[in-house]
UniProtKB/TrEMBL annotation:
Annotated family: Belongs to the 3-hydroxyacyl-CoA dehydrogenase family.
GO annotation, biological process: fatty acid metabolic process
GO MF annotation list: L-gulonate 3-dehydrogenase activity; NAD+ binding
Keyword Membrane part of the UniProt annotation: yes
Protein name per Swiss-Prot or TrEMBL: 3-hydroxyacyl-CoA dehydrogenase
Species of origin: Exophiala bonariae
Keywords assigned by UniProt, alphabetized: Membrane, Oxidoreductase, Transmembrane, Transmembrane helix
InterPro entries: 3-OHacyl-CoA_DH_NAD-bd (IPR006176), 3HC_DH_C (IPR006108), 6-PGluconate_DH-like_C_sf (IPR008927), 6PGD_dom2 (IPR013328), NAD(P)-bd_dom_sf (IPR036291)
The keyword Amino-acid biosynthesis is annotated on this UniProt entry: no
Source taxon at top rank: Eukaryota
Composition-biased stretches (Low complexity): 18-43
Region (Disordered): 1-43
Amino acid sequence: MSPTQQDQDQDHARLGDTSSSTSSSSQPQAATLSAPAPSTTTPLPSRCEKICLIGLGAIGISFLALHLTFSGAQISVYDPRADLDEHIAAILPLYLPATLSVDELRSQGRLRICASLDDALLGATIVQEQGPEKEVFKRDTWRAVVTKVARSCRLWSSTSGISASRQLEGFDDAAAGDGDEDGDLAASARQRLLIVHPFNPPHIMPLLELVPSPSTLPEEVEFAKQYFLALASGHRPIVIHKETKGFVANRLSFILFREACHLVNEGVVSVDELDEVMRASLGPRWAVKGVFEMYGFGGGSKGMRGFLDGIGSSIGELWDDAGDLDFKDEGWKDKVVKQTDEAYGLPTAQGIRARDAGLRAVVQCQERMDGAHER
Ligand SMILES: NC(=O)c1ccc[n+]([C@@H]2O[C@H](COP(=O)([O-])OP(=O)(O)OC[C@H]3O[C@@H](n4cnc5c(N)ncnc54)[C@H](O)[C@@H]3O)[C@@H](O)[C@H]2O)c1
């Protein structure tokens, strides 16, 4: 067996450990979407990139694991949280393959944990922000960033809902303090900023919604797409055609979430019963085929037309009857929080491992299906 092959097989065996201590290399791989973690002897894509991650909360640390596992990029991170070191030590090893150690990544210079934003931005070719979901934070961050990085630097935001246009609203060269006569720093920032919206947790979930503003250059979108495809991590970047509140996946998810909260609030089902309804129905159904393709089957030989004509009136009645919760009302929130905490407790390391193993298994199963069937 060649050293490379051996490395990869060892990677496979160890990666299985993230979900179960009894995993072996002969079992389905659990640590990546489809590809094994890169071995030290495998050339890695994006070795030349220097990525600065701003904000290392739930999304930042998961993206960090993704870049560290599948790219050769050097990563610098900045987050002012007081418990940053403990947070990294507690969570990052859960997300990395066992072949990668945080201490080694730091000593090799693959990972730099920086005490200031300026330090983290040094030499950055890509800046990816996942700080607080506040417009003022995004605006202030980009103002600080663009004056300190090269004009070729890619600008990506992980925001769940603040469009690239809004993040740079009111941004002009005077605001940026750009004294350079041939500057036009603000216009250049607009051409480079796009949303790279992940689905949590991004080190596993394949979807990346790439959402440009009308000013973003097509080549910036293409670069982001090619970067993630080149990782061979199984990620599926999808370009969204128009800036819309919440993009696409969250619009679908949060509307469903509202109805779920409404049904619990009305006492129709409990939190855990609703979860089981979901897992036994829409979960597997939509993992196999998407919304439209699947409902097309519901219309028999007439497809979608048959489906809409057949049960359209029931659909219309349900749309009219959908729950309309007020987000300022704490009553339904208390009910949902209490039931969720009682049913599941708060997230633990063991829970995260189980979630990740389950998600990986489903995604890998989906990939096998897609490979096995003509679409
Ligand atoms: N949580 C999700 O499911 C999810 C999914 C997709 C996208 N997002 C988006 O990702 C972003 C981050 O979300 P999250 O859930 O990771 O939030 P989070 O609260 O877990 O993390 C935010 C991090 O930003 C840090 N921060 C605060 N001020 C900062 C500053 N000045 N500079 C750098 N870092 C700073 C905080 O210390 C924290 O660690 C948001 O824009 C959110 O909309 C979240």
